[in-house]
């Protein structure tokens, strides 16, 4: 029998940990694993808020049965239909055939598409409420944070926001569930990485959701990934606020590809110049080694972005081109930009990096440096000047 964590009066954590999966969404590394969070309120009426990945449905259903202790499950609230949270709905419905599923109109189209479920549904709209007895729930729509059907559920009784993926982070819950029970330091960078990888494109919808929720008194945030936030609510909200406004910290990300080391020498010269001019936060990513997940995280984190590429088959180095497409897909805004490249017989990389900066509408802060073959003294000095220009621009923030 499971001893379940009680988040508030008769509000239980029934989520699970995934320490098996190597890549989230088959793309993003999970060195600390990931949790799939679900919450059960046992009141005069019983309600489950979101489910978990179907791979863990056996553990999940056992936790629910233990918490209900023979009672029926009256409601399932579906705040988000992504399979890592909605994957167990069909099995839950088989276990509790009379459960009424609560969602919005967009939820139900996906519910039918994924699970063939189109009966026993209760549609809610913005501001609709549900009384469970002691607990009073209100529903708020949060479309495109980060799917179109997303909504959040607010428990006015205990001032709990069940926030779907918002304020989520990579990382399993290793014993504790509430932030005050654990050392949360490693979650902050993982929260930024999660945001940049998953939510990054949708800054404007996140801002709208934050403005809407700012009117609520929130004492606890129950996300579908990572810790339950109570002691560190302000910091979690601040990270999502800054990320969604694309507000980078003072620092520079140097992203480069290099086949034989010549472009890398240029990157090293630029980094040394940045450091000599007072920039302490400098992150260098060799695209052939650094996973895109971490490159994106740092581009969201820091204000300055410097990209370098050799010319390859009259194009950008393929791994540079790949990361540029991922940055572009997230529509990262408000970055200071500089770039450099190298070639052996015909240069094309710098022209393409120029076009990329224009497409992103980033502010170019220095003349690009383009080296033919091995790094020469004058091009080395150009790299130093590029670093100086970026440092000077960052110091004006």
Structural overview:
The chain folds into two domains: 5-244, Metallo-beta-lactamase, Chain A; 253-394, Flavodoxin domain (Rossmann fold). The strands form five sheets. Strands 1-2-7-8-9-10-11 form a seven-stranded mixed sheet. Strands 17, 18, 19, 20, 21, 22 and 23 form a seven-stranded mixed sheet that branches. It has helices at residues 57-68, 83-86, 89-95, 105-115, 185-199, 203-213, 233-244, 262-276, 292-301, 318-329, 349-360, 377-394; strands at residues 5-8, 11-13, 16-18, 23-24, 28-29, 34-36, 39-42, 46-49, 75-77, 100-103, 121-123, 129-131, 136-141, 151-155, 160-162, 220-222, 249-256, 282-286, 302-312, 315-316, 336-343, 363-364, 369-372. It has 397 residues and is of the alpha/beta class. The model has no long low-confidence stretch (mean pLDDT 97).
- Approximately how much helix is present in the residues? 25-40%
Q: Give the strand content.
A: 15-25%
In whole angstroms, the N-to-C terminal distance is 56 Å
Query: Which regions are unreliable across 5 or more consecutive residues at pLDDT < 50?
Result: none
- Write down the overall geometry: elongated
Largest sheet: 7 strands, mixed
CATH H-level superfamily title of the largest domain: Ribonuclease Z/Hydroxyacylglutathione hydrolase-like
Give the number of helices: 12
Number of domains: 2
Q: What value does the average pLDDT take? A: 97
Count of DSSP strands: 23
Class by alpha and beta content: alpha/beta
Class of the largest domain, according to the CATH hierarchy? Alpha Beta
- What CATH architecture of the largest domain do you see? 4-Layer Sandwich
